[in-house]
Amino acid sequence: MAVRLDLPLVTYAVKIREVNMQDGFALVERRTESRNEVVKAGFPLLLTCEKDIAQIPYASLPDLVKSLRYEPEMWTADTPVTYDAAQIGLKGSPTMVFKTGTPEKHSGGEVIKTAEIGVEAAVRMALEKILAAESVASVLG
After folding, report:
1. Residue 10 CB: number of other CB atoms within 10 A?
2. Is 118 left (phi over 0), alpha (psi -120 to 50) or beta?
């Protein structure tokens, strides 16, 4: 969506550190595999957030009643903004799914209990099993 709208994209946001409307930017802390990093992005921007970005409060009784009466606003290709029908939905998707399926279920691996045979014997046994496997043995020569 960000690419199509030509907007900056910040993914995995965990904290919004600053919103500066006057200068038109936000400082956003985002999660990466190794650490969190702080990104400065201009407005408008698109964020994807982690669930821990905010605490979700319990709804009050009046809000629960109000939610039961809520009628969502329906958007179409014509309203509230007009979109080219060729650019939205299945026909407008830039990706195509070739095939779907369920992967086969694998059984668990062998458990070597070091408490029973000792660490040294367990390592020796594991290395023997690894080297006995044809694909690994051919790589290691």
Report:
1. 19
2. left
| Alpha-carbon gap, residue 10 to 118, rounded angstroms | 49
**Distance, CA of 90 to CA of 68 (rounded, Å):** 32
Joined tokens for residue 20: 């500066």
* Cβ atoms of 53 and 36 closer than 8 Å: no
Distance CA 28, CA 21 (A): 14
- Token reading at 25: 């930017």
**CA dihedral of residues 39, 44, 9, 7 (deg, nearest 10):** -140
Is 0.90 surpassed by the pTM of this model? no
Rounded Cα–Cα distance for residues 119 and 49 (Å): 44
CB 123 within 8 A of CB 117: no
1-37: pLDDT as tens digits? 888 889 999 999 999 999 999 999 999 999 999 999 9
